[in-house]
Amino acid sequence: IEYVKDLDHIFSEIHRICKKDTIVEIIVPHFSSYTAYHCNAVWQFRWYEGLADYCISNHNHLGNQWFQLLHAEIRLENHFKWLNKIINKMPKFYERTFLKAIFPAYEIYFKLKVIK
Fold it and tell me: What is the pLDDT of residue 49?
């Protein structure tokens, strides 16, 4: 989905074709990864930004959200996997500090549940 300009359309279609309580899993490159800046990529995703407008969670109860965010996880490069648990306990701190440059993430995993 990092190559699609109109995320509203993509998420409305995913919502439309899925039954209530369907689990949708999305994996996208993390903005600190070199893969996030591929030549045609439109979006660079962070732990909570980017998909937050489409999800109801503890942080967001406004608008017409189509999904409930069940889980979001930053996944580091293979040689830094041992740090995954630590990073995911403080993802906003990780993304706002020098840590993202020293230990670049590879991808972000989102687990969403369709709300109808």
Answer: 67
